């Protein structure tokens, strides 16, 4: 297959590597916006560069990895050409652009895949497994914490993460949107939401609160100004499941007592571990492979995935 990709640097370079590694891809055409940049880039292996968007019309599928403000125009261009489209989240940058996506025909929506990274992650796999375990009971509360201290690094002093007013470039929309999308996948909708962006003294932190009508609550905390931590806790009626340091633990049974017959924390049992320590990169690779397999089979993407992407997008607008 011949695949086109819009963008060539940073995160996009990982997708380029995945495409080059795939046996399904015979030719990769990389679109670069500025012609003068192409002079610095060399065609190699399966890769060719172009600054003419029209050249991508002969491709079987298109990956849109350009800035968010360009997503709508590229989607509009290639959906009219009846192309399969892989678009990096969020897919739109305004309510007007969201309306454009919602107004697409169903057959067009089924040709678009928005890349929300958690969809092929180990976390997604274990969420699915844990929610199906009747012995754990009903889920009541989900707590997500993902933090590191990059805001204090000198080379991040003028980084776009700390200067932009765009919600999707703040930590809430840039990082938090992946986890909101994951929650949308399993719980469909939330009746209450609140986003608290904190930005003082170069901090870029965010708290997100979500609640369903059945009183399921989820809280998320994302920070660029705290020590590193990557942890998820899911509280069920009969157990607690914790994700920590690429391992998954279950604490049960609920009614665990000490010698005085007072409640104590249940014993912790390891129920799994991530196959790849860098789950984020592996999930991205799986997303690209999924996209290629759909094109090869000439099937369609799930309409629910499209609708979940729109819900996640609207959450931050």
Secondary structure layout:
Elements: E1 2-6, H1 11-21, E2 27-31, H2 35-38, E3 47-50, E4 61-64, H3 71-79, E5 84-88, H4 95-102, H5 106-109, E6 112-115, H6 122-131, E7 139-147, H7 160-163, H8 171-187, E8 192-198, E9 205-211, E10 217-223, E11 229-236, E12 240-244, E13 247-251, E14 268-273, H9 279-297, H10 303-315
Parallel strand pairs: 1-2, 1-4, 2-3, 4-5, 5-6, 7-10
Antiparallel strand pairs: 7-11, 8-9, 9-10, 11-12, 12-13, 13-14
In short:
This protein has 317 residues and is α/β, with parallel strands linked by helices. The protein has helices spanning 11-21, 35-38, 71-79, 95-102, 106-109, 122-131, 160-163, 171-187, 279-297, 303-315; strands spanning 2-6, 27-31, 47-50, 61-64, 84-88, 112-115, 139-147, 192-198, 205-211, 217-223, 229-236, 240-244, 247-251, 268-273.
Structure description:
This protein has 317 residues and is of the alpha/beta class. It contains 10 helices and 14 strands. Helix 4 runs antiparallel to helix 10 (303-315).
* Rg over C-alpha atoms, rounded to the nearest angstrom: 21 Å
- Portion in beta strands: 25-35%
Spatial strand order of the main sheet: 8-9-10-7-11-12-13-14
Helix-strand string: EHEHEEHEHHEHEHHEEEEEEEHH
Terminal-residue CA separation: 37 Å
Helix content: 25-40%
The overall pLDDT average reads 91
Enumerate how many helices there are, as a single number: 10
> What structural class should be given to the helix and strand makeup?
alpha/beta
Largest sheet: 8 strands, mixed
The general outline is globular
Low-confidence spans: pLDDT under 50, at least 5 residues? Answer: none
* Number of strand elements: 14
């Amino acid at each position: 297959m011949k695949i086109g990709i819009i963008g060539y640097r940073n995160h996009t370079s990982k997708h380029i590597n995945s495409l080059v590694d795939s046996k399904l891809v015979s030719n990769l055409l990389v679109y670069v916006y500025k012609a003068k940049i192409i002079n610095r880039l060399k065609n190699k292996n399966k890769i060719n560069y172009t600054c003419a968007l029209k050249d991508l019309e002969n491709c079987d599928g298109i990956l849109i990895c350009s800035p968010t403000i360009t997503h709508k125009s590229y989607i509009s261009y290639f959906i009219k050409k009846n192309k399969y489209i892989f678009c990096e989240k969020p897919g739109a940058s305004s309510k007007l652009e969201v309306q454009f996506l919602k107004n697409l025909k169903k057959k067009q929506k089924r040709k678009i895949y928005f890349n929300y990274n958690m969809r092929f992650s180990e976390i997604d796999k274990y969420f699915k497994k844990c929610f199906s375990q009747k012995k754990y009971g009903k889920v009541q509360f989900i707590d997500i914490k993902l933090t590191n201290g990059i805001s204090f690094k000198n080379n991040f002093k003028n980084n776009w993460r700390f200067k932009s007013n765009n919600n999707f470039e703040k930590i809430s929309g840039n990082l938090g949107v992946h986890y909101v999308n994951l929650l949308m996948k399993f719980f469909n909708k939330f009746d209450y939401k609140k986003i608290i962006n904190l930005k003082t003294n170069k901090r870029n932190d965010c708290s997100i609160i979500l609640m369903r009508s059945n009183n399921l609550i989820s809280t998320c905390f994302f920070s660029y100004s705290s020590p590193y931590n990557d942890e998820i806790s899911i509280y069920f009626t009969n157990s607690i499941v914790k994700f920590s340091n690429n391992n998954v633990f279950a604490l049960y049974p609920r009614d665990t007592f000490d010698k005085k017959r007072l409640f104590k924390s249940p014993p912790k049992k390891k129920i799994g571990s991530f196959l790849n320590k860098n789950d984020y990169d592996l999930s991205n690779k799986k997303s690209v492979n999924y996209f290629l397999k759909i094109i090869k089979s000439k099937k369609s993407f799930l309409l629910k995935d499209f609708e979940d992407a729109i819900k996640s997008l609207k959450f931050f607008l």
